[in-house]
Specification:
Length: 232
């Protein structure tokens, strides 16, 4: 991982977008850290949108309609959920400065969230940054089993429908590899990034429904779901 601190100037939402366009993103050491640093990994995690896999057990959860999915209705709450400590993640990299920056991006229409609700409570979700036809996944959280995973499935289908070409996950994890995530080198990533940000895409799609779950054919032992539809 390559990165460096630079607090000599104020970081703005506009500067943050330029950083994403160059292939770098911010992090902090902890929620209590007053500063942040830039990260430019040698190896980058991505989920190829045409090779996304939904495990059969998760497909069953989606078919049952366990969660109500909403989009961009509680961005600050999703940020705070991602900043929560958990048994597997005692510390977070989302500090006050990063929270403020992403709220600014959301107000400007460049950041979005997918939310999983149950019985009127936010129980999971994810957020990220949109630039051209690239979506940069930042973080996700779950307060109930599979909540963030279902949110990811809905995100991928929305990106497919909106014409996106790149879903950046920053790093490759065992969790994400189950969905088809792979690791590529920096040179390959930047070529994909340049091509993606050069073309338009749309996250907010007229007629897009997140409540439709139609099973489609499976592949490589997984069940793929078509979770989006266009209303006439």
């Amino acid at each position: 991982m390559a990165g460096g601190r630079d607090q000599r100037f104020e970081i703005t939402a506009e500067i943050l977008l330029k950083a994403y366009a160059c292939g770098i993103f911010p992090m902090a050491e902890s929620a209590e850290d007053k500063g942040m640093f830039w990260v430019d990994p040698d190896e980058r995690g991505i989920i190829p949108l045409d090779d996304f896999h939904v495990p059969r057990s998760l497909a069953k959860t989606i078919r049952r309609g366990t969660f109500e999915i909403r989009v961009d209705t509680a961005f600050a709450a999703v940020l705070d959920g991602c900043a929560e400590s958990s048994p597997g993640r005692p510390q977070t990299w989302i500090n006050a400065e990063i929270r403020s920056l992403y709220l600014s991006l959301f107000r400007a229409g460049h950041a979005h969230c997918v939310e999983a609700w149950r019985n009127g409570h936010l129980v999971g979700g994810l957020y990220g940054v949109s630039l051209g036809a690239a979506f940069f996944g930042e973080s996700m959280f779950s307060r109930e089993t599979d909540a963030s995973k279902v949110s990811l499935v809905h995100l991928v289908n929305r990106l497919r429908a909106g014409g996106y070409r790149l879903l950046d996950t920053q790093f490759l994890t065992t969790h994400l590899s189950r969905f088809g995530a792979v690791e590529i080198d920096r040179e390959r990533y930047r070529a994909l990034l340049d091509a993606a940000i050069a073309v338009p895409a749309r996250f907010d799609i007229p007629g897009f429904r997140v409540d439709a779950a139609q099973p489609a054919g499976g592949g490589k032992g997984d069940s793929d779901l078509q979770l989006f539809s266009q209303t006439s």
